[in-house]
Amino acid sequence: MHKRTARKHHEFALIDKYWRAANYLSVGQIYLYENPLLRRCLEASDVKPRLLGHWGTTPGLNFVYAHLNRVIKHHDLNMIFVTGPGHGGPAVVANTYLEGTYSKVYPEIPQNEQGIQKLFKQFSFPGGIPSHASAQTPGSINEGGELGYALFHAYGAAFDNPGLIVACVVGDGEAETGPMATSWHSNKFLNPKTDGVVLPILHLNGFKIANPSILARIGHNELRKLFEGYGYKPYFVEGDQPEEMHRLMAKTLDKAISDIQAIKKKSKNEDSPKRPSWPMIVLRTPKGWTGPERVDHKPSVGSFHSHQVPFSEVHENPEHLKLLANWLASYKPEELFDNEGKLFDEIASMAPSEQRCMGANKHANGGILLRELDLPAYQDYAVSIKKHGAPFISSTGELGKYLAAVMQRNQGHFRVFCPDELLSNRLGALFTVTDRQWMGENHPNDEHMSTQGGVMEILSEHACEGWLEGYLLTGRHGLFACYEAFIHIIDSMLNQHAKWLKECRDIPWREPISSLNILLTSHVWRQDHNGFSHQDPGFMDHVANKKPEIVRIYLPADANTLITVADHCLRSRDLINVIVAGKQPQQQWLDMESSTAHAKAGASIWKWASNDDGNPDVVIASAGEIPALESLAAVSILKKHLPQLKVRYVNVVDLMSLLPKEIHPHGLSDLLFDDLFTTDKPVIFAFHGYPGLIHRFAYNRTNHHNFHVYGFQEEGTTTTPFDMVVLNRLDRFNLVKSVLRRMPDPETYTELNTLMDSKLSEHSQYIAEHGEDMPEIQEWIWEN
Q1: Is 283 exposed, middle or buried (0-12, 13-18, 19+ CB in 10 A)?
Q2: What is the pTM of this model?
Q3: Is residue 400 one of the residues assigned to a domain?
Q4: Which domain holds residue 756?
Q5: Which of 300-303's residues contact partners 24+ apart within 8 Å by CB, and which partners?
Q6: What residues in the chain have per-residue pLDDT under 50?
Q7: Are strands 551-554 and 707-710 parallel, antiparallel or unpaired?
Q8: What is its EC class (predicted)?
Q9: How far apart are CA 303 and CA 26, in angstroms?
């Protein structure tokens, strides 16, 4: 045997041992409570009382991780590992333990027999770790609690990271999800010169929980054509014999890395590189590979029966206990771990050096790499307020000018993500300093398309959210702008990210990352032609359900407040910030100095709109710019017709300020809340969203029984802007009527009440005839 062949054979033998060690640790996590290295015969008491977890995908993940370690060492690669299969936690935990990262961040789990026992016990155990690659797992940037987003996270991590390779394993069950189907198109946005690389590894093991997986039942040629159609260069590694599979995987990975290096080298000499055909790997292995072939006379390996725990009832069934003992022994732990329980040095040498271990890669703990944004002085983008209510401009249009300056100063670590709506949402000023990143075909009439753009537009909310999460988790900054009605598409993605952030607060080695900033515009109250399908403000309710210390919701009433809030959000860390602001031209209320003070307070009395002298008869409050407009118009009517009535106007910009201080860090104390809303006066509250959210936030306050909230009542259609608020009783006339009903002698105000009814009737007749709102509505300005 030639020396080179002998070295290769020896290397494969060590990789196989490393793989066996990872498999052994994975099985042990699922089953073992004691006797972690089988120093004595396995007894029922050595097995956990509750068997939880997933085995089926794990050996394939361990196989991939071991072989990625080899190419990292051979080529000194900067690589992270994204785990797509939802319950691949045992594999990633096992591998990060073997490479030494796990014990470094968790010194209470050392690399010895005692550490292995702790590693086993904590898995799916009260107070321990879950079965997916969660925030507690070193090297993870993909929660895994829900399938479909691994490849989006991987590409998000690669954008603006030219030296990084992201190896992303996609499970064949995960491959059936809608988001994953779209995520393959991310290669149309990846610039080989300025971005990193994503190496997708589609792991086909044949089955989901109880059914065959679609892609595993597609023939080789059809599968190859599918991924060639996506624009990839697919390589296939298929089989079930470990020795042959090690050889095939090593050869294939070498080819893939060679392709990647050739693409990167070629791109260095190109100003605008063309989209290459990036390599990907299709890995086909048996489900539950290396596990028991049959359990209770049914097939296990290569069957959906191995998806979760291949067999249970170990305490009651001696045959199952024997089966487990034989399974564990098949990995020959005595050949893997020394007398102290430490991986033998020669096997351990297959892991990369500490700085190159995938579990220790800084890009998977992005806060370490986070650079502060170079933000312009937001005051320089102030809208000049000539008088309250003027000028009449788009607030998001003004925000776009500020964001353009942010983009210009921070290219390479700040991006804006939007589902084909940037211009629609009046953020077009960004295109004065950057373009949309695009590696697809270009036509002569295309606008603002470039191979190096800071704006990511794709008609997929899943893509925008997933890319942004991956971008943030690897140490960069960004903003996601979306139509309000369709942000619900990413409800569950936000849910996963919120849980990730919450967990990270209790993990000392996880460094803070830039906040997830979401701008919602094209909102419920201005859908003149889209109609009912585009009318839903309920995302705020979803966000409000998350842990209070994680979430913020802002409803700025004008451009200066919007810019102030945006600046604050971009500076924040480890939060989810949701900003709701309309794109249509609107009246402007506060100068920048007042906006800054107002945003800092969260909620405040607008004294210029009030005449209460500190003792109001009624409080009119609002949150959101359309509710602010209607509330101020109602205040104006009351001042004109009932000048003796003492009215206080309160504007809420930080919705979380309505919560008690004990519940939310931005919450108002009871004293401050009562100072704003009084302890005994009626409060007519006009809200951008569903009224129940305000009641929920304020229910424990002194004066909550006097709160009368008006908001979206699920009444909508294709109609005029003012008719939308009328349909939901959020309009100025209905707000005035609500005030009158709460006065001590409501019959005293019959004349004004009749006038309001008349105005509502006049409105209905006018729009039916003219198709637009009455001039007095369209031309109304604040004059008091």
Answers
A1: buried
A2: 0.96
A3: yes
A4: 616-778
A5: 302/206, 302/240, 303/207
A6: none
A7: unpaired
A8: lyase
A9: 19
